[in-house]
Amino acid sequence: MQAIELNVRVARKTAEALDICAFELVQPDGSALPAFSAGSHIDVRLPTGITRQYSLCNDASETHRYLIGVLRDPASRGGSRAMHEQVNEGDLLRIAAPRNHFALDEEAPHSLLLAGGIGITPLLSMAEKLAAAGRSFDMHYCTRSPERAAFRHRIAAAAFAGQVRFHFDDGLDAQKLDIDRTLAAAPADTHLYVCGPKGFIDWVLARARGAGWAESRLHFEFFGAEVAASATDGAFDVKLASSGRVIRVPADRTVVQALSQAGVEIQVSCEQGVCGTCLTRVLEGEPEHKDLYLTPEEQAANDQFTPCCSRARSPVLVLDI
């Protein structure tokens, strides 16, 4: 289903930390925005023509604004640089209405929120929701240094400030996150939420899984990923179930690129297999999953894949297109 799109105005752009800007987005006419839930993100169509996802970090009870935080990434493929350099207060942006692939289980007896860098953004909205509902939670916020910790003043002023611990890479060893101790101290049936750089998420999940945490209690969201080429990347065919048309996917092209060249468009966004925008049903054949969006169990089912980055192990994939 095509996401609802709307125009928003940048009401405020503020420097939140070193290389991080916050953007407050409102309806141009001042009317209410579509509702969202903690953990949601929006797709932002940038002046350069590309689309990027940014988590909403304000209180989900607010209807008058969306708030996003954007890290200026030195390895940017154009998104964060455009937001920092080309988007200013008063500008209009085209966005897709909020979607949530990182939903909060509000009934969990305890929640453990672990943020790495800009990964704080969706977890802030979760903390607001949990605090408002009187639910039990703890948050740990890891950054390279204090000046890179966004929204520190907001957290300090929040009712849940006492439930947040900061950890800085350039600080004393005693204040750094002891992940094993943190996991061991969590109450029974705690749900864990982690967001940030891939290395941080991988580290947290590996320690949690090694400690016996059930997959159903592990929740995570990646902001970006490097799609690695492999020696087995070869050409294959995709067949469109609706028409029977067969389209060749060369070794140096993605499925999305091959389809687009053949006049078949699929909605895409991140192009790195992290957002799920392009998720497509597979009716026959075996995908080679390269995404970070599907869980290992979902990948093993082989009934859907992300054509922006994933490929095929079988000669043909029959797609529900």
- Uncertain ranges: none
Percent of residues in β-strands: 25-35%
Which H/E pattern describes the elements? Answer: EEEEEHEEHEHEHEHEEEHEEHEEE
CATH class of the largest domain: Alpha Beta
What structural class do helix, strand and pairing data support? alpha/beta
Q: Return the CATH topology of the largest domain.
A: Rossmann fold
How many separate structural domains? 3
Largest sheet, strands/sense/barrel = 6 strands, antiparallel
Total helical elements: 7
CATH architecture of the largest domain: 3-Layer(aba) Sandwich
Q: How many beta-strand runs?
A: 18
EC number: 1.-.-.-
Domain FAD-binding FR-type: 3-105
Enzyme class: oxidoreductase
Protein name: PDR/VanB family oxidoreductase
What does this 3D model show about the protein?
This protein is an alpha/beta fold and 321 residues long. The strands form 4 sheets. Strands 4-3-6-1-2-5 form a 6-stranded antiparallel beta sheet, covered by helices on one side. The mean pLDDT is 92. It is built from 7 helices and 18 strands. The protein folds into 3 domains: 5-96, Translation factors (Elongation Factor Tu (Ef-tu), domain 3); 111-222, Rossmann fold (3-Layer(aba) Sandwich); 236-319, Beta-grasp domain (Ubiquitin-like (UB roll)).
Write the layout of secondary structure elements.
Layout: E1 5-17, E2 20-26, E3 41-45, E4 51-55, E5 66-71, H1 79-86, E6 92-96, E7 111-116, H2 120-132, E8 137-143, H3 152-157, E9 164-168, H4 179-185, E10 191-196, H5 198-210, E11 218-222, E12 236-240, E13 246-249, H6 255-261, E14 280-284, E15 287-288, H7 296-301, E16 304-305, E17 311-312, E18 316-319
Parallel strand pairs: 7-8, 7-10, 8-9, 10-11, 12-18
Antiparallel strand pairs: 1-2, 1-6, 2-5, 3-4, 3-6, 12-13, 14-16, 14-18, 15-17
